[in-house]
Amino acid sequence: MNTNLVPMPSDTDISSLKHPSFDDLRLLSDISQLLLTTHFEGVIERVVQIVMKMTAAQSSRLYLIKKNPDDDNYWRIVRRLIDKQPFEIIPPPVSDSFVQWVYEHQCGDIVKDTLTDTRWKHFTDEQAPIRSAMCIPIRLGTNIVALFMLYHSQPNHFTPFHLRTVTIVGNQVVSALRNVSLYYEMRDHQEQLSATLQALQESIIVIDHHHMLVLVNHAARQLLGLTLDESVEHQLLVDYIAYEPMLESVMGNIEVCEPIQLRSERLQRDFHVSITSWVSGDEEEKGHVIVLHDVTALGDLGRFKDEMLRVATHDLRSPLALISGYTDMIGIELKDMEPTPSAVSIQQHLEIIKGSTDRMGRLVEDLLRVERVRKSPLEMQEQTDLAAMVKLVIVNTRMAAQAKAQDLTRDLELDNAPRIIVDAVLVRQSM
Q: What is the reported pTM?
């Protein structure tokens, strides 16, 4: 049972209802069309005019029952529906009156003669004499939100047919209120989402299953060469490749939906591009959301770091090579001299200098190597002779072993070992 609908009074004599005429049905059809429109302003005013014509009422009044004064969203919707239709805002009826009876029983009824119906109290400021009246409630959920009154100066003017017809109209108004509420709620969410997307610095492009543009935010408009007020309706994304060639790579990866790094030569900017898919409500049409994050600053920092690393390592290697070379020359000259205590001391100092420069040289090589591995790790792998590598490691570490009074012996069977593809420097360093 739909609790939004207002029932007929239980004592209504259905047999007394006349058959609706063609004009009655046409008026009901007109009201239904009004309540189905998305142009909601003034709908209630037009409905009231049709109802008064249908019932031949002389006047009407709409009473809005304000139980929750803080429900701004509801009152905003109601005011747009009512527009210029006169209305009064009243508290929930509590006095012993006709409107209180309708409010309490939550169904419409008729006052056939105001002079004989004990429920009648002059509830309106109408100046014309009132002898008959009809009232129906308008309900949202279980709450009565409004009362609609019709008046006439003659007794017994309103009939059960009028009551039934106006009750049907009231139920249609309830459906309209519910639809309007959902409409404005969805529109508000859409506007909030649109404002959020427009404010983002990332370029966002939404396309449908035909790759036609659905949404392009401000940042993406600059990328596509569009003005802020230029329409993107019925525009294909591929049509903008001539203006921005980077989009060709985007379209080539549209079905992969994996992040890619691209550069716009036209803008001289770097972008991290993320592509995700979305599916329509019937799950038959698949669109995509393309987000282009400008990483030019990060790219510039990376290039600056690479340049500084290249310059720094070059400036370090040159003096290290000189120190190592002069150390070797002094060592050669010491071998031709008499082995005096001072010569032995100098030789020890030279070995310390040689060891320090070698360590510094390896550190510089490691810095360069780490950067090369980060950029392209596979380029550092090569076919390696494992036997030759082990022999080289033993030769390089023998001096350090002797300084610690350690003896290195070699018992290897690697002469027929196959060449393997590894990062030779890293393997040698680990050994």
A: 0.49
